[in-house]
Amino acid sequence: MNQLKPGYGKADPASMREIRRIAVKAERTGKFKTFFHKVLSLSFFLRRLPTVFFPSKEDVTSARKLSGKGYFRQVLERLILLTMFRMEPGDYYICALFMPEQYAAAGSFIDYRQFSFLNFFLNQKKTTILTEDKIQFAELCTKKGLRTAPIIARLNLLTPLPEKDLGEKIRPIARTEGLFFKPRYGMQGNGAGRLSCDDDDTWSLTYATGGRFDGDWSEMYKILMENCKEELIFQPLLKSHPDLARFNPDSVQSVRLITFRDRETIRPLLARLRLGINDSLVDASHSAIGAPIDLNSKKLLRGSRKTTAILPESIETFGPNNIRLEGFEVPYFDQMQSLAIAVHEAFPEIFSLGHDIFILDDGPLILETNHIWGSPQFVHKEGLGSHQGFINAIIEIAKREHF
């Protein structure tokens, strides 16, 4: 496998200062100073401003224990971060204080905002449309012989399939496996849901964000049309590998595996198993916990909620049977890494990608790929300072961009 050697070492201060300088220079290129981005920036500021003055009591207490800073000092720093750097008000504590052995001096390392921005900047290439469009992505994978979930049907709002035709297409699978539907360009499970049908032709529709409906197909079709904001795609409701389903048989488990391009070689950077909570239909955002996967041993570490809390809870066991996370070996991990690398090779211009991979009982398949995959959860455990190869690759490519 093309993976980073253990003990690659922490980034030296000179490297981190260099990458920080490049990140700042990239931001000053003006590529994100359009009217749209200005409006987006203003909207972000207004929506986050209340969290500056009214952070959760738990966050304030945790930050005080960790740094010794009181409420007013925290408010001032959160306001500076939001105003001057457009950062999430809580991100300073995540990046600078959560792992004191890796972030001993906050100013010595690139912060999450700069890392996320630089990754976003380097990935702005024409081929990113293929990572955003789930239909084009599925077609690309099929063309290249990469295993992915088939698209059974599509519901286009401009030229929608008639009620009868769509019902006939999806009914056989809805009765056996069940169906999962999601927006063509949707993110984090918004607009996604599950459809099933029993032998009496009674349908059940459940949205990932809440809401369940039962009735005949005509009612389901009407609900889909009323709530659909963009084209929907329908795919089989996949079943996790039996070993993973033990964690939570009623929800979803998938792996987010990050790869990056080191000169001409695609390397894995890190991986995280995402476990849906309760009966959640998606394993994104608030509806999941994440457990890092050690790339060498292929085993899980402790988990944490996918949240921007200052000190995410360390989760040792998960599921109705309280299965231990740490030490659990992920099935088909080598095949999963090979699949992620093969997918990345189909995008020669993109520096780094986050692949969502589902593991069935007979191996992995790729669900989708994201060119903007950053989240504070990846900083919590792994720490940017431990990925010297990734940092060197960013510096090399960024220099070629002539910022």
TrEMBL record:
InterPro entries: RimK-rel_E_lig_ATP-grasp. Pfam families: ATPgrasp_ST. It comes from the Bacteria. Residues 121-384 form the Alpha-L-glutamate ligase-related protein ATP-grasp domain. This is Alpha-L-glutamate ligase-related protein ATP-grasp domain-containing protein. It comes from Sneathiella sedimenti. The lineage of its organism: Bacteria, Pseudomonadati, Pseudomonadota, Alphaproteobacteria, Sneathiellales.
